[in-house]
Design a protein that fits this description.
- It is a single chain.
- The protein is α/β, with parallel strands linked by helices and 422 residues long.
- Helix content is 39%, strand content 18%.
- The protein has 3 domains: 2-88 and 225-322, Rossmann fold; 91-222, 3-Layer(aba) Sandwich (Rossmann fold), CATH 3.40.50.10090; 351-419, Arc Repressor Mutant, subunit A (Orthogonal Bundle).
- The protein is built from 16 helices and 18 strands.
- The strands form 5 sheets. It has a 5-stranded mixed beta sheet with strand order 1-3-2-11-12, with helices on both faces. Strands 7-6-5-8-9 form a 5-stranded parallel beta sheet. Strands 13-14-15-16 form a 4-stranded antiparallel beta sheet, with helices on one face.
- Helix 2 runs parallel beside helix 13 (309-322) and helix 14 (353-364) packs across helix 16 (385-398).
- It starts with a strand and ends with a strand.
Length: 422
Amino acid sequence: MTSTTGRPAAGPAAGPAAGPAAGPAAGPAAGPAAGAAAGAAGGPGSCSELDPTQLLGATIGVTSHRRSDELIATFTRRGGEVVHAPTMRIVPITEDADLVADTRAAIADPPDVLVVTTAIGLRGWISAAEAHGLDEALVEALAGTEVLARGPKARGAVRAAGLSEAWTAASEQTAEAVEHLLAQGVAGRSVLVQLHGAAGLEDLEPLRAAGADVRTVAVYRWEPPEDPGAVDRLVDALAARSLDAVTFTSAPGAVALLEAAERRGRLPEVLGAMSGSSPPVVCCAVGDVTAAPLRERGVDPLVPERWRLGALMRCLSSHLAENPRARVATPAGELVLRARSAVLGGRVLDLAPGPLALLARLAAEPGRVVSRAELLSELPAATDGHAVEVAVARLRAALPRASAGGSVVRTVVKRGYALEVS
């Protein structure tokens, strides 16, 4: 699992984020330059107006294989840290004998209807045809075909290929295209569907039942991840709630994460973390198709109004900025609590898991005196009050002084400790 840190320098006292799962779960940090360099390449990550402190202290899990660089670049340039663990990988099959055979069949016997489900799929198909000298013949054969596009991006690819679409699905779902064809009547018609990996096959059954001759062409396929250990560590981080958010950009990727959690015996914990119970891990899906397998398990993910990667990044960034785990006004500045770190006065604090856990407990009830016994429960490995005193001392050492010169963590003799508020 690759962990990329893009937080701005926080001065001598600022260090790496720490938390319950901040060790083995996170890989090498690439630093702020990595996010900036990746963002400069273009796409959503290249937006010059990005706020480099918007996600300061936040840790986000990224499960996607394709276009993950854009997610990582944008989140790190906004000040966050990314834990990257692709749950599936997309493999082009341009040299696949079945793809070549399907292409030749489409040329020899053009379909009445072509359903284009993804832009990358159509581009990949034409590219594969070109490798075999069949691209011109393929486009010519499809020129007289009724082309349906599953959304604006697919429509753009249709036009770029020199074809014209007859209709575009507003919902960007294959099921809507199927309903459109059924309303027209498909008995005796041949329908060729460019598949989105292995997804959507079940949506085509009504066409066959209505008498259509349904054929499919697959340009890429989903395969298991290259690093299953990274996925296991992501599952553990979700179960431990040591992430602020996790993103999904495909339904197969979401299913793969849930299956990995089930194999590790941690599915109930992962579902609990993503379903909003405190402290929550915000689950964000790029669209309703991606969200479907999560909703089936009782998780209601954050979904942007526009089902686009850029919209997902903006939507999640705004949500996390507005909804930290805790936000408290203290004499030393605003305190923001994240899953693996704390930010005070705009500076990421250098905190080990124990002191961070105590700070989170104090921030949950700012101003209230929390007993040593209550704080001890936040330190599972500790056995007595001395451990609490040591952890509080380390916490105070990492905190800046309040404006009046005292610590923002106040000792109440014989009672416990309290977080000062302003």
